[in-house]
Amino acid sequence: MTAGILALFVALFLFLGLGFDYFYGSFNPVAAPTFEYNDTGYYEARRAGAGSKIPFGTIISLLIGMGMAANSLLNGPRMVLRSTMARRAVSASEKERQLLNIVAEMATASGLPAPTAYVVPDSDLNAFATGTNPSNSVIAVTEGLLEHLNREELQAVVAHEMSHIRNYDMRLMTVLAGLIGAVALLSDFAGRTFRYGGRRSGSFGGSSSSSGGSGRKGGGGAVVLIFFAIWVVLIILAPLLSRMLAMAISRQREFLADASAAELTRNPLGLVSALEKIRRAVMPTSAINNGVAHMCITDPRGSLIEEKLGFTADVLATHPPMEKRILALKVMAYQAGNPQSA
Amino acid sequence: MTVLAIVLLVLGGWVVFTFNGLVKLRNQVTNAFRQIDVQLKRRHDLIPNLVESVKGEMKFEKETLERVIQARAAAVSAGQGGNTGDILAKEGMLTQALGRLIAISENYPNLKANESVKKLMEELTHTENQISFARQFYNDVVTKFNTDQQVFPTNMFAAMLGFSPAALWELPADSPERENPKVNLTV
User: Where are the alpha helices (DSSP H) in A194-321?
Assistant: First the structure.
């Protein structure tokens, strides 16, 4: 499922990027070469326009997007912790001692090195994980969570975060952020070109740059026109579309993390009661920035979108509706019938 | 000729790949088993402290405390003996005795209010959890190791390459851990 959506995302990106290069750059891999008589007395195949085989727009936007993503991957954990004002959990405090113990237990259960435990000074109930790989990962929980959850529930929440680490969700979401950035850049390039540049060669079909473009005049015109229309619509919708795709992947990873948490603790009902407590505290977690929303146990913006079932929740939320998450966990605990089999 | 060479190369590559994968899993199995040992040792170290701190409050439960101490001594000596069956049985008895102690201590409000006892109880719960999660992880890894050996076509080569299925951690049929701790709450 995740792989499918990711493939769709990459396809969207390639369509936009290559379309941009096709219509505005001189990128055209299938142009019929023109044959020119060269100095040495042979006919030489030459494509219209220099460097027409390289889609510069696509590559540049991808490089910039990935560069930003790499930066966030390298500096992300530190920046996230600083922005939430998290501090290391200390063993002197009773509750934090328990947190440290639980993190160690979950590390044992998953067979990974123990992440560092942090506490976020916020009274809302939330938790997040960050880190580029299991050996330098971090699990942070809010003070409110420590206070309101019992040991079993806290264990379930830590197991959920441990699963994000074990499934390398941080890396996945960073790659997605890179793609979103690249798509946004492309759409920006295109928007500016609409306004200030205009397509360089006047008529449709002659889109292959100034150097003549004898390749596709005539018959291909209508098809190219249709493609151009689709492409323009997609470019306009691109920032929204790319975000929707990323959110769809994020929701899948949340379901996966819930399921892996149940696998680690062998106690899906612990997570059910934790989620129910978290759900009742719907205030936004002000200390946690939206950027790490997808690594949290619940959306830090307050669970208003997640409470809704239906279209908005299906399209725009980082997390699946609590209703659905709890139902999935209850099915695991044989406390509810499987809706898919009924 | 070329076709034959390619087929042989692919087959050879597959064997190397499978072999390395199985070696990796076998080492993980050994490591996971040692992790259980580490946690059992931790429990042995924790118990004297625990008994010392609850002794004053629980003088009416001398028998329970004594059973914990005896079970610990037996488990430690079994651990030094190194006989796996023996270790399993003795550690099972220790788990049983500790479970009883925890259940009874719930009955003493003074004990529950005592800071140092609370801390020790948390440590004990932690250790018991660590042991069960270490076992759970061991069993998960062993299951993966055994499955990887038994699936077709690896099953034809696994024994030839020197792999044999590892044993799951399970309680013997007569293990005291299988019994529920009997707790008499009429104090």
Answer: 221-265, 268-280, 304-307, 311-316
